[in-house]
Amino acid sequence: MEGRRRSGFVCHACFDVAHDTLALLVASDAVYENVEFEELLLQMREAESLEEQGDILHYLVVQFGLNYETGSVIEGQPVIVKDLLKDLYERACHDKNWALVRHTAGMLGKRVEDLAKAVTDLLVRQKQVTVGLPPHHEVTITAPLPASELRVLIHTAYGADESTAMLTQELLVYLAMFIRTEPSLFHEMLRLRVGLIIQVMASELARTIKCEADIASDHLLNLSPFEMKNLLHHIMSGKEFNIGSARSGTFFISSKSTKLSKSYPVSALVYIT
Fold it and tell me: Which residues are in coiled coils (predicted)?
């Protein structure tokens, strides 16, 4: 985001969320590289956590592809890796495991509803939009594009990091909501650098909850849609926000102003293919 500086917005220690995410994926992939396909399926079925199942399915998608047949048959149809991933996505949605929802949605090729409209709303208000992480992988969106092309552009910018690519889609929708309802937030802003915004959001979490960068990255990706919107609004407005700890060890974020919760009711993200 360029054109002005807000107190506390420019961070000299912004860390790369995508780098942390990819490092974890590479580490988990190394665990499975010498394991047979059938054994991986057995491990996945016996895994106690959705996260472990997600790690195994991520590896299967990368190594074998979404359409690889698992050897099982349901109602006369072969079960493919994509079917297992869809099932995991649905269970992650049910459990509100938002980090896993975002990651599996990315692997399934889903996109946020109204993505194209959101980007168009930003562009017609004379805002340049960039996606990808600075300084080397930013891509500028200069004209309205169909949703399918936008999805490809965004996910190409983030490489194998499906989680941050999906988060970028989500933030574009929220930014469009804000520019329609609170245009003053964007006064004198010439460019919206979504990758930089993600870095700053992660840095704000790390500073506020006093944790290491990789822990803050995990918490950022696991925020609910409403909490993510609250945190983004805090970044855009420079207002203070509350952060608390839930019993599960996760965090919840709310604005110290009641205006945000009234203007933006809690709603789940709608991902479509």
Answer: none
